[in-house]
Amino acid sequence: MPVSANDLIELTAVAAVEPAAAVAAAAAAVARKRPRPGERRVQILQTLAAMLEQPGADRVTTAALAAKLDVSEAALYRHFASKAQMFEGLIEFIEGSIFTLVNQITEREVSGQLRAQKIVSVLLQFGERNPGMTRVMVGDALVHENERLVLRMNQFFDRIESALRQVLRAAAEASGSTTPTVDANAQASVLVSFIIGRLQRYARSGFKRMPTEQIDAALRLLTA
To answer: What is the pTM of this model?
Structure first.
C-alpha cells in the first residue's frame, strides 16, 4: 500500500528524534495498517486471477488463495460469501471491461463491418493481456465451480453474438443483401466461434499461441 502524506510527516517527525530505529519502527507500523475498504477485495480478485495464470492451476482452492495472500480462509470470507462469489467478481470485471469497449466501438465507428472487426479484436486483446481471465472466459477455471458461473459466461458470449448481429445486419443492408438478417446471424455465429476457439487455444497452449495471431487477415476473411 502506498505511504500517505500524513504517514510521511509522521516518519519525518520521528526520524528527527531517533533516526534509524524510529524510521524502521514507524515504517513497520505503516505496513501493518489494514487495507482501506474495498482494497482487500481487489487484492483477492487480483491474486485469484494471477493464480489462474499458473501451469496446472486446474482448481484454485481457498486454502491456497489464503496462503498466497498470507491471510486466513476466514479472512477471505469476510469479503466474499463464497468462492463462487469471487469468480463472479472476476466475471463482473470481464463484463464491465468488454461491454464498455463494445459500446465505444458502436458509438464511434460508422461501418458495420469495421465495428464487427473491432469487437472481435478487443475481446481477443483483452484475453491476451489477461491470461487468468481467459481461463474464466472459456470455462476451464469454472469446471469444478458452481454451475451458475458457466451459465453466466455463456450469457456473456450470447450478448457478444447479439451485438455482432446488430452491426453485421447494418453492414449487410448497406451492401445490398436481400437477406441481411440471415447473413448477419450466420456471420455473428461464426465470429463468436472464432473468438472462443482462439481463447481456448491460448489457454490450452499454456498461453503460448496468441489469440491475436494474424488477426487482421483472419478478420478480413471472416467479415468479407
So the answer is: 0.81
